[in-house]
Amino acid sequence: MPDRTDYSALIAGHTVIIEMINSGDAGLPVLNRLLRMAQPALGAAGMAFVEFAPSGGRVIAATGAAEWIVGRPVPANDPATTCLLSGPRVRCVRTDQLTNQLAVELAGRGLLRMVVSRAELGGHTVGSLHALYPADADEPSTEERGVVAYLGTCIAHMYGDHSHLPVQGDDPTVATRADGPDLRDALDQQRHDRERDLFVAVTSHELRTPVTVIKGYADTLNDHWDSLGEADRRQAARVIGQRANELARLLDRLLSSAAEVWPGDGPPAPFDFAETLRVAVANLPADLRRRATLQVPADLPRAVGHRQSLATVLTELVTNAGKYSPPGSPIEISAAADGRTVSLQVSDRGIGIRPEHVERAFERFWQGDSGDRRRYPGTGLGLYLVRRIVEQQNGWVFLRPRTGGGTVAEMRLPCR
User: Fold this and answer.
1) pTM value?
2) How many Å apart are CA 165 and CA 122, to the nearest integer?
């Protein structure tokens, strides 16, 4: 940690951020730039920001030695989280004195000191800013704590402006406007009504096409069986089978989205991640399998999770990549490990993802485009289910733009 904060770097960096905002930038690009600016100025090894919504917290931005935790859920009822969200707004803590899993992993990577400041809006916490330091760093000074507090206040101001924040669909700023239980109940009812309307709209839209196709081919076979050749009959039967499979998959998604837990899974257990991934790639739909390439290191450790769910996760991620990229373009599947987690990456060369959508994409029924003329079909359930499946295994999943265009979906599971 430097002897004093580099204020010249802070002022220069803050000037760039203000220019970004004045130019129309907002949300995650600005937040990430702020963290990248603050890290060297504070002499930190890494920075992270956790956004809190009614459903819990999530790391939505991180830099340096903390970059690997982007997308990580932070349960609001965790004792360590509860401790940090109460008491002094700014404090210095040691990660090796906290008991939650994320703190244990940070300490295991040598990030033992942490300056935390809550970002508060109208007396309610919308997030927390974390500056992380190695074990040999000096105790943060009052001056440095003040800088982290100031940056936390700047982020809270961004939330007050609603500049593409919050990133999650559950608006954490709702709490600042919910004065009393009646208004909160009304907001909950509005959310339930909106989800019901979305459910009806999405399911009717997605059911209409396969049902229409099945009925059309079935009527053709019934009315013109004798006049059809063998090849035409087989083609009709093949299309009916394909569309029936689509309906079955849609039904599975809808049922799974309503379930509290992923059906059929017991406690997470060690399994051969590399071999399971190879089998899952081999079983992808033919059109996606032809586009996919797989890279797996020879020394990949075993993962701890539900082996049978990896095929579901991979299929959803690859299907998503295929849907939002040009036909025939490559889909790159790779695996890696960093000592504590095993990761799966699915990369495409498609339309990419806007920074303000990297979290919204995991909402139930959410679509990047909407209405009757949507360019991309789908229920908006795939990524929602992927996140539920992965987080039930103590892992996490997130999206990021791919360098050169496209999107990278990354899933992480604990390793043995």
Assistant:
1) 0.75
2) 16
